[in-house]
Amino acid sequence: MKALTKFLSIILFLVYITSCKPVPVSHWFPTTPQEYYEKELYQVKLEKTQIGQTWFRVGKEVLSDSIFSVAPYQERFYLGDSIPAQAIRLKIPEGRNLVITPSRTDNDTSHLFLELYRIKSNGKAQRIDYLNNNQQILTYSSQTGDTLLLRLQTGVNEKLTVSLSLTTLPSLAFPVASHGMSDVISYWGAERDRGVRSHEGIDIKAKRGTPAVASENGFVTHVGTNNLGGKVVSLSPNGSPYSLYYAHLDSQLVSAGTRVSKGDTLGLVGNTGNAITTSPHLHFGIYSRGSGAVNPLPFINDSKEKIPGLPETSKWLGDTVRTLKKANLFASSQFLPSEQISSLPQNTIVRIIGEMAKGYRVILPDGTKGYIPTIPLENISTNTKRLSKSQRLGKSD
């Protein structure tokens, strides 16, 4: 009898859920602030209204947006009415950590939902992180040069102007104690042996006996000697696809299998191996499993990034305007010729949905999105008033 009752309960439940519009699983078990908000919208059946349908639809559609940028970068976004959500794709250099910092005016109480996605091989967006209500920044460590998508969305029937700063930081600590980028004396790709081979790493000058330190927590995989590197140590960082290679050491102070923490001494700088005729320095290399040596410089370069500023005012942000000059439309804010989407003639109608140091993010009447350089613009309402006045005076442009 109990089995029959359970069976009937399952049948009734299946009939119920197939007779109603299904609610996404994430709204039964929300995780992110946006999912909790969406659950509230479903509870009051706002998804059945036109404004609610627009909010859900646009939030989903922008996950397929293809316009992109490269950090370091800043942009000011408009969110509201028919554009409650926007997104941007990002390609983060290998070995860098992405730092995402949104900002808005202190008295703005509109919702801001920020979620970070990875673009999978099939082109679909997979959420990997999000900004909690008590967070000021969001960080992401790029191990394989992922293509990311960042979605920003405000609440239903809300308007929000939000500035977004995208910067990067090195994912590894500098490998020589008390030294920095000014001590790098030879770079990746430099010729070696009269052009027979190229440099698969960087050289860092330091006095003999200076500690060569672990750039990340991990374990030592190899301690040995070879003709080129002399006394060497290899370190595998925790959870990383890379192997760190320290060469020309005067002495090694660890053994294979040793677990180390960032900053621990692995050996002392010297000039062993084929560096015997040079002054003491550390050869630092990074090897990726399956693809060989990679340029270690981005992994440790802590030089301050120069980030383009933003316009002081948002004269056109959110407005539909007319272009007063011809302009090319680009898929990226870098405005490279290879990224051009189309050419817009003078008097093209566009809506300004973002602004940067040297241009605007726009959407055309057909839904196409892209970037245009800074050009003269005119508000459509201003143009309409000017035409009406001319018509009253019996004139034409």
Considering the chains and any ligands shown, give keywords for the structure.
397 residues; alpha+beta; Jelly Rolls; Glucose Permease (Domain IIA); SH3 type barrels; ten-stranded antiparallel beta sheet; nine-stranded antiparallel beta sheet; 6 helices
Would you mind describing this structure in some detail?
This protein has 397 residues and is α+β, with helices and mostly antiparallel strands. The protein folds into 3 domains: 24-170, Jelly Rolls, CATH 2.60.120; 181-298, Glucose Permease (Domain IIA), CATH 2.70.70.10; 320-392, SH3 type barrels (Roll), CATH 2.30.30.40. The protein is built from 6 helices and 28 strands. It has helices at residues 2-19, 25-28, 33-43, 50-61, 297-300, 380-392; strands at 68-69, 73-79, 85-91, 96-103, 113-119, 125-130, 138-141, 147-153, 160-170, 184-186, 191-192, 197-198, 202-205, 211-213, 218-226, 230-237, 242-252, 259-260, 265-269, 281-288, 292-294, 320-323, 327-330, 340-344, 349-356, 359-363, 369-373, 377-379. The strands form 5 sheets. Strands 10, 13, 14, 15, 16, 17, 18, 19, 20 and 21 form a 10-stranded antiparallel β-sheet that branches. Strands 2, 4, 7, 9, 22, 25, 26, 27 and 28 form a 9-stranded antiparallel β-sheet that branches. A hairpin with a 3-residue loop joins strand 15 and strand 16. Residues 10-19 and 389-397 have low confidence and may be disordered.
